[in-house]
Every structure is written in C-alpha cells, then in structure tokens.
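note to self: dont lose this again. the chain is below, predicted strucutre after it. 254 aa total, dont forget to put it in the shared folder this time
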Amino acid sequence: MSRFMKQLEYLAYRLAKPEDWDFKDPKYKDPSRPLPILYNYINFTYDRLIVENKIAITQDETAMCFNTGLQTPLDSDIYAYFVKNKRNPEKHKWYFIKFCDSSDRDLRKFAQLPDIAEYIENASDLVFDRKLLPIRVNYEHIIVDNKSRFDAVSKYEEHELRQILEGAIIRTQERVRRNYKIAIPQYYTDKQSGVSKIQLLLPLCLKNPQKADLALVVEKDGMAYVAKTVLPLDWAYMNSRRIVRPDADWITGI
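---
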C-alpha cells in the first residue's frame, strides 16, 4: 500500500472526526480503492485550492501544505504536508509526507497556514427556491441516457419507467415544497465549457415512497429548475461531500 493510501486510512480512522468514507452499495466497492469518497474529496479539494491560490509554500520552497477542510474531534484544522521532490521533480514537484493537525512541528516553518476551499459565492444557490416549482423534466433524455442507473434499482420498460418517474418527481416536488432542506448542493464543473456551478440533489423514490433510490440532479436555469440527470446515492453523496457534509437523512440511507 502506498504512503498516501496508508495516510488516507490514518486520516479517516484516527485523525479526523468520524465519517463514513466508503460506498454503501456493494457493486460500487473496489477492494483495491479503499475510502473512495475521502480519496475523491482530497483530490477535489486540492484542485479547488489551486484555483483559489490557497496553497502555502515555505519561503525557501522546500515544503508545501494545504488545508483539507477536515478537522480533528477537538476542532483543529487538518493539513496535507509535502516536501520538495528531489528524486523526480520533473514528474511531480512535491512529495506527499502526511496528514497532520495545526500543532504539528513541520507546519511551524510556514509563515501562515492556508485557509479552506470556498465554493459558494451566493448563499441563495444552496437553498431550493420553491417559487420555481414545478421542476422541468426532459423525460426522454433522463430515461434513455440513464437507463442503466434505473436498471440498477429495478428493471422497467421505458414506458413503465416514464410513468413511475413522473409520479416520483411529483412526490419529490411536494416534499421539497414543504421542506427545502432536503435539497443538497453539489459543485459541478462542465467538462466542455469549464464553467462551474452549484446544482441541487433531490431524493427520487421509485419503489418505496419513504426511501430514496436515486438522486435527481436539478439546476437553476433562468426562472426554472431543470432536471439534468439522476445519480446513484453513493455517487450523489460523494459529489455533495466535496463541499459540505450532507445532513439530510435520505442521501445517507438512514
């Protein structure tokens, strides 16, 4: 096991506040890739910090660190610490050493410790605007392009799925009308345009009206919310955890 993966386990099980960083659905588990949600979170956070110019480098340029955004059980910030790569600097400038809290001796060489990543420019983007209901849905696109995700829940013919999906979205709209907090934000970057935006995740209950099977991804477009796609719950949780720990029960399977 690599140094990074050993340190990732240390971060998950000993250093940081307890969280479930693994997929729940067995079909998405990969023994060779433990803690996939945490792995994704750390890499996504680093990429965002690069954009925000929040990477700290020592004056002599021998070490680098960044704020993971995670904390210890006693609320100390946790950092990723690197040293200059002397063996193969052409490939990677920095060599990862460890995750550590703010009291670590190696962090004393930094004049100032870096801040956490920020994703939100407008707080209203995090709250579902009930005035924009109903959600607009291109059912052909949602069903045809995501048939395998629906099949993973249960097998339906496309005409059956259209009826089931219509009913599920109506129920979701009624739920979010009464409790806007069930909408969970995710940070999405369009690969073609490079534009980043906040999307919202909503529970989609296909079989049992009390239990989410998938997450419906909606995006504000002008004066409407448009359904963009559906995600397995594990993927939805991983995407949302990149920016905040979700506190809505439906996405954690509780």
